[in-house]
Amino acid sequence: MGDHMKFSLDLAEPDHKRPSLSRRCFITASAGLAGSLAAGAAAADSLADVPPREDGADLSGHSERSQYVKLARIPESGPGKRNVDPADAINSKTPLDKLFGGITPSDLHYERSHSGAPDLDPAMHRLLVHGMVKKPLVFNVEDLKSMPSVSRVVFIECTGNGWENWKKADANLTVQNTHGLVSTNEWTGVPLKLIVDLVGKDAGSHWMLAEGGDAAGVARSIPLTDEILNEAFIAYGQNGEPLRPAHGFPMRLVMPGFEGNLNIKWLRRLKFGEQPWMTRWETARYTQLQANGKATQFQLRMDTNSVITTPSGTMAIKPGYQRINGLAWSGHGKIAKVEISTDGANSWKPAQLTQPALPKAQVRFQMDWVWDGKPTRIVSRSTDDQGNVQPDRKSFVAAMGSNALFHYNAQQTWSVDETGRVRNVLD
Amino acid sequence: MGDHMKFSLDLAEPDHKRPSLSRRCFITASAGLAGSLAAGAAAADSLADVPPREDGADLSGHSERSQYVKLARIPESGPGKRNVDPADAINSKTPLDKLFGGITPSDLHYERSHSGAPDLDPAMHRLLVHGMVKKPLVFNVEDLKSMPSVSRVVFIECTGNGWENWKKADANLTVQNTHGLVSTNEWTGVPLKLIVDLVGKDAGSHWMLAEGGDAAGVARSIPLTDEILNEAFIAYGQNGEPLRPAHGFPMRLVMPGFEGNLNIKWLRRLKFGEQPWMTRWETARYTQLQANGKATQFQLRMDTNSVITTPSGTMAIKPGYQRINGLAWSGHGKIAKVEISTDGANSWKPAQLTQPALPKAQVRFQMDWVWDGKPTRIVSRSTDDQGNVQPDRKSFVAAMGSNALFHYNAQQTWSVDETGRVRNVLD
User: Which CATH architecture has domain B305-425?
Assistant: First the structure.
């Protein structure tokens, strides 16, 4: 049981021939996969061990979820404020512990709003594009749909993701609680660059105001770097279908790699200018309070991050074979490497990454582990293709102080006690 | 208006700097984008042209679709048999004309069943793996979830997709009617190769029987080629969540590139042997009747295909700028090239492909076109990275005869009449 095993599947090369499992691996896997697998093997050579076939429901216009599948986000009113009245909720977190692969189902993509989720009438909605331009224009949804489009799989992450663990760790949190403000969808829309060229932006304009059509009117000043001009787009599609109201229907700005609140939902206005507008969303809100009491503005990029989703907080494991599974992402580019420690960050082993690892998208990682039944801590650490390494918590807090609230990307540690119970801890 | 325009966006290189639109392109686009865009531009420099901001609904556990979005599949009872009693439906087609990007929403993935869609209890369900193996085993869903997994974006296509146009063309069909039996999801599950190694398949076994848990008990013999051993997997996840009942919950076989009915849903059994089992699903059904009256068995791979989704059947266009948009896919590998003809297959121009173009997945293509208002026909033609070219209809029918029903992949032609009405035609 204490033997280490390693499935030699090469997930990185799906088109190549995979080497066979060794005899030793086969034995360890059979013993390690526990319970029903070994028990089933004893008298398995008959359909008597398999339930009878079942007649089904009529075919329909939509495939709904199984009655046996219970999946939901958790609405919260702030860090540590769960089980709230829905009217007080300001965000709703994705159940990372119950999902597979890299795509988040559209109805479970995390939600964050300052004044609820309006369902705007797309026939009435307009996007005004003006300011320092030669030819101000108003676009409706059909205008956008008739133009050249891009489709791209990218993560969007609330700048507050991880804020639960800034100061202390609640041992009863799940990964949905700690990291559920990040999701990955395939978004489709019109490149910002195309809009910029259609209105004829002045060369002197290096900032853009993006404003939402929600009652709060969230508005952010966005620097027009080459990267942003080349990658941002006005999305009308999400995982193949029109945006859902909670995610900005009928149009939102998508800013690959940058903080969630820049991805303005219910987008009604883009204005070009020379300077940032200093809206309340970048003065009173979304500024980063440093250790010295001063605040940093315009910390816009989401950093290199990762979290183990199985096993994770509140789960229970048994001694023997475990398949560690998790998600990694970086606003700088592609995830190049994820390492896992099963001994409290003393030693590290490389995890396998599901390919293709797309830039600025969540990537699934996996690793085999045989738990010996002794208390320990498990941690993941990601590195992106720009060389950014996810920091350990001590270094992170030393650099950021403990007054801050946003851009938490320290390594996440889960402890495992002698009963197999998994808990959220600081390090 | 007659000027041709070309947006010079390089969709293939999202990370590189895109060249600006030329002055000429800007003018053509402004004129060509028609109606509201140019009208809006006249007095656009004010928020008075944009609807007021709206308060929203409370945040919740799920983001539902907008009340303004109407999307549904079309259940049918066979070629040309629409508007049927749901109890008679045998398939339900994806609305390709209303979707964006490459991912199909899970509830709109096409559905095909011989005895409805059972919602099996995952706690009771078992997969028996036996036959020519050293150690027959029974797996439950939790066994699979605890094992190494792969996630892969692939299309699944019913072998009957396109059958509407085998013999004649109904001018009133939409692309949902003609091509709606293909969809693309991200699937997650356990590699077949891992199961094969766990049970210790005999070297002499070159075939596998896969059987479903639906009342019809669809069962197919699958040749264990290197390609299939390396790429097939037992899926439990679909677009990040558990499979939906219509798509095989709690487990299905995924066979990238091969006909839909081999992707056995509600999978209850894999049996290894020396020869195909000659089930009724490969003798009475799913055989291909040739021109000489003989039938071909085991024509398993889905060929290179493509279809223009905008504009497509029953749509209406106006003279001027159009953005042609469509989907291409191949069971052989990646789509390498899509060409579009706007003059009835006399001349062809390359379309832009959304990148990354994944192997055995649907890929979005686009091209600019300025319609001069004269009747014409538009056609797409795909080529994959193995050099397979989608055939024109005349060559296809000459090769396949007109008795056949499956594996239709001839080029799809849409006619445009002088009023702009788009219709399904044979060529």
Answer: Sandwich (2.60)
Instruction: Provide the pLDDT for residue B83.
Output: 72
Evaluate if residue B296 carries a pLDDT over 50: yes
Residues 6 or more apart whose CB falls under 8 angstroms from that of A363 comprise: A102, A327, A328, A329, A334, A335, A338, A353, A354, A357
Nearest to B143 among A36, A73, A147 (CB): A36
Structure tokens at A320: 């023997």
The H or E element that residue B268 is part of is strand B267-273
For residue B123, the chain A residues in CB contact (below 8 A) are 68
Interface subset of B 292-351, CB within 8 angstroms of A = 321-323, 325
CB B158 within 8 A of CB B73: no
Name the closest residue on chain B to residue A366, using Cα atoms: B148
Q: Is the pLDDT of residue A82 over 80?
A: no
Q: Measured between beta carbons, which residues in chain B are less than 8 angstroms from residue A143?
A: 33, 36-37
Report how far residue B63's alpha carbon sits from residue A92's, in angstroms, rounded to the nearest whole number.
10
A147 to B323: CB separation less than 8 angstroms, yes or no: yes
Q: Cα(first)–Cα(last) distance of chain B, in Å? A: 28
ipTM reported for the complex, 2 dp: 0.91
Please spell the DSSP secondary structure of B142-205, one letter per residue: HHHHTS--EEEEEEEE-TTTTGGGSS---TT--HHHHH-SEEEEEEEEEEHHHHHHHHTB-TT-
Are B68 and A188 an interchain contact pair (Cβ–Cβ within 8 Å)?
no
Give chain B positions within 8 Å (CB) of A358.
356
Question: A275 — contact with chain B (CB < 8 Å)?
Answer: no
Q: Among residues 38-67 of chain A, which lie with CB inside 8 Å of chain B?
A: 40-41, 44-47, 49-51, 53-67
Superfamily of domain B83-295: Oxidoreductase, molybdopterin-binding domain (3.90.420.10)
Show which of residues 123-182 on chain B sit within 8 Å of chain A, judged by CB atoms: 123-130, 135-140, 142-143, 146-152
And the tokens for A427?
């390090």
Assigned fold of A74-296:
Sulfite Oxidase; Chain A, domain 2 (3.90.420)
A275-316 pLDDT per residue, tens:
999 998 998 888 888 888 888 888 999 999 999 999 999 999
What's the mean pLDDT in A102-111? 98
- Taking one residue from A and the other from B, the number of pairs with CB-CB distance under 8 angstroms is 471
Which residues in chain B have Cβ-Cβ distances shorter than 8 Å to A68? 119, 121-123, 249-250
d(CA A249, CA A234) in angstroms, rounded, equals 11
Q: Structural domain boundaries of chain B?
A: 83-295, 305-425
